[in-house]
Every structure is written in C-alpha cells, then in structure tokens.
Amino acid sequence: MTTRHPERQYLDLLEQVLTRGDERIDRTGVGTKSLFGAMIRFDLSDGTVPILTTKRVYWKTAVKEMLWFLTGSTSLRALLRENVRIWTDWPLAKYRRETGEDIAQEDFERRVLQDDAFAERWGDLGPIYGKQWRRWLGADGREYDQIAGVLDMLRTNPASRRMLFHAWNPPELSAMALPPCHMVYQYHVTSDGRLDCLLFQRSCDLLLGAAFNYAGGAALQLMLAQQADLRPGELIWVGGDVHLYLNHLAQAREQITREPRPFPTMKLLRRPESIDGYKIEDFQVDGYSPHAAIKADVAV
User: Fold this and answer.
1) How far apart are CA 157 and CA 2, in angstroms?
2) What are the contacts of 280-285 at 24+ separation with CB within 8 A?
3) Which of 147, 166, 215, 272 is an S-S bond match for 184, by CB 3.0 to 4.6 Å?
C-alpha cells in the first residue's frame, strides 16, 4: 500500500480554506478566507522534517528565527545581522505611522543596524516570544525561564503532563509588535524515549507563515530531544484561526496543483553544552529538492 505523503495534509488544508473558508475583513484590512480548527501530524522519527516541498521554503531563515527566540532577544538588529528580514514589517509600519516618513525598508534596516539610538527607539519588538519563553516576568517580580523548566522536566520527570511553555502574557500583549501566533508548545515523552510536540497556533497565515512554523518547530524539537537524550517523535500542529489572505488565493491555487516531493532530513552536527549553544551551522539538511518559490506579500 502506498503511504500518503504527509505534505498532502497541508495541501488539503489549503484546498479546504479555498473552497469553504469564511470570508471576512480582518485586522489588517486585507481580508481573509478562514477556517477554525485544524490538525496536521508529522513523524520526525525517521529523520525527515516538514520543510514543504511544493514551494521553496527558506528553512535557514526559520531556524535562525527559532535560535533568536531562544536567546530571549527582542531586538530586530540581532535578526538583521543574520540577514533575517521577516520581522521588519511591523516596526517599519509603526515608524512610518508615527513619524509620517515614508522610509524605504532597506533604509530603515540600515539605520537599525548602524544607529544605536535609532535601533533602541525603533528596532525593539517589545516583549515578544523570546522574552516570554526565557524571561517571563512573574507577579512576584522574578523572571522565569520556561525553556529551562521544560528541559529540566524532560530530564527528571518525563511522564509529566506539565511540560509546556507559552507566550500569551496578557499584561504585556499591548507592548508587543505582534501578539504571539504560535502560542503553546507542549511536550510528551513515550515509554521508549521519543519526544513528541504539540504546537498550538491561535492564528495562522497558511500560505506564508505555516511553513516557517513547521520548520522552526521541528528544529526546536530536535534540539530539545538532543539535550534531553531523547529521539524525535511526532510534531503535531494544531491551528485555531487558519486563514488565507485574499491576496494569497491565486498563489494557494497554484501550490495545490504541485506534486509533493520527498521531505528532506535534518540532523544536528554537534551537541552543545546547553540549549543556548546552537548555531545555524549546527543544522544540516539533506535531500531538499522543492518546487519553485511562491511570492506573496505579508499582511501587516
């Protein structure tokens, strides 16, 4: 019996949103077609990872973003130094709105990189993912490192049902450049030593964002598994509001006509002393042969 390609789950979800998504105006004003509630399961135990093949996914960008989250940084400058520009849109929009200056993205990024005062004023993204993951400020005034807590439980109490971290911190949402979309990561260890992850995403830009969430989540799972002497198991992605922007429909229709190719493998080339020691050079992806990239604009 032929095994169904796991990427078909994603293509099926694209098609469902296209055919029966509820059309409405959203926060950005662009408008979406949306479904509520979806699940996709990827098996990482054979070494493969869900880097989509029906379009080229710049997986190094997704992994660099995940490594940035793990540092606890909220600085756009740190990302730009790694040539990652996927977070520029939000502070750029804020700058244009508040100053009235129609600055080009390239000029804005250059100023963030070169001007310390400008970077401090306009290049901080607020208390987003990394801050909440590594430096959650408790009501007691102490900072809590949720990642360290999960790793400790993975090592000492792998049967726990409390191995999770999240980023939805209500008092700090208004100060964030963008409230967290991939909100909760919960982990589960099987009796034979496999690490499973359930990733809940409250809001998912299905054409542009999902591919990065799959790749970044898989990379994080590999790092946590290695640090806890476990083997990667399943990555289970759950979406809340799963949507296509109305200016992405043609691209989605193009993507669902493409035949998936074999998923690539990802492996870690070394084991750092801690979760904080990983670099992009530690990740090796083999066998990635995707279809051409599909371009689309980000809705801000």
Assistant:
1) 39
2) 280/60, 280/63, 280/64, 280/67, 280/82, 283/60, 283/63, 283/219, 285/49, 285/51, 285/59
3) 166
* Pairwise CA distance, residues 256 & 242, whole Å: 16
Within a 10 A sphere around the Cβ of 94, how many other Cβ atoms? 14
The pLDDT tens digits of the residues spanning 252-290 come to: 999 999 999 999 999 999 999 999 999 999 999 999 999
Q: Which residues are catalytic?
A: 181
- The pTM score is 0.95
- Residue 1: the pLDDT is 59
Residue 139 in domain: no
Residues 58, 189: one domain? yes
229 part of a folded domain: yes
Residue 203 DSSP class: E
SS3 content of the chain, % helix, strand, coil (to 5): 40, 25, 40
Which pair of tokens denotes residue 67? 């490594």
The answer for residues whose C-beta is within 8 angstroms of residue 136's C-beta and 6 or more apart is 143, 144, 145, 146, 169
Domain that holds residue 174: 7-73+145-286
Q: Quick one: 162 and 238 in the same domain?
A: yes
